[in-house]
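Subject: Ribonuclease HII

B.,
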Amino acid sequence: MAEEKGHDLRRLERELYAEGLGPVAGVDEAGRGACAGPMTIAACALPDEDLPELSGLDDSKKLTPARREALYPKILEAALAWSVVMVPAGVIDRVGVHVANLEGMRRAVERLDLAPGFVLTDGFRVPDLPAPSLAVTKGDARVRCIAAASVIAKVSRDRTMAALGGVFPGYGLERHKGYGTAQHAAAVRLHGPTPIHRYTYSNVAAATEAWRADQAPGAAGAGEAPTTDSA
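Prediction pasted inline below.
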């Protein structure tokens, strides 16, 4: 089956429904490239009809935070079914980000309150799904149900990171959402890593090594407990 072309986000879904392969579920993730916090995977199945209330739906990365927040409740209300899976940093460190992503996508599909007739995944093939599937390159910008899943995943993760910013103050998690900004690296060098950091990521490892060097006997600041009360 050919991948969807053009800007008609419903085209591929419509073809699958016409072939009797509905409901069609889309799956996408947020936070794969972050170095702190969970990777968040969402699955979403939308009805085989136009949904004017979702006008402007697109890849979540192309939408402003305000637009994502506005679309989020509309997607949940319109969806036939949706689910969210959070994969913690410790699991990502243990099995690797790609394996964690694949397993999270499988779990998200399994958690849907319906059995999809077909699954569309963003970017790469996910084996062992409970229905036929197709990987769509840049699917979050080309297929409606994948775009919807991308918004659900992104909003869910951003809200989680904002809450974690209160649990671990001083790291700016509510601002950079756990991605590897210069300010984030500086905070880890100053305060040390937290339980939600991905220790196998090179930038976290480097910043952690610098922090440990500062804590060594004789180093400037040695013996001082890491603080988390300043940005």
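Strands lie at 24-30, 39-45, 81-87, 118-122, 133-136.

T.
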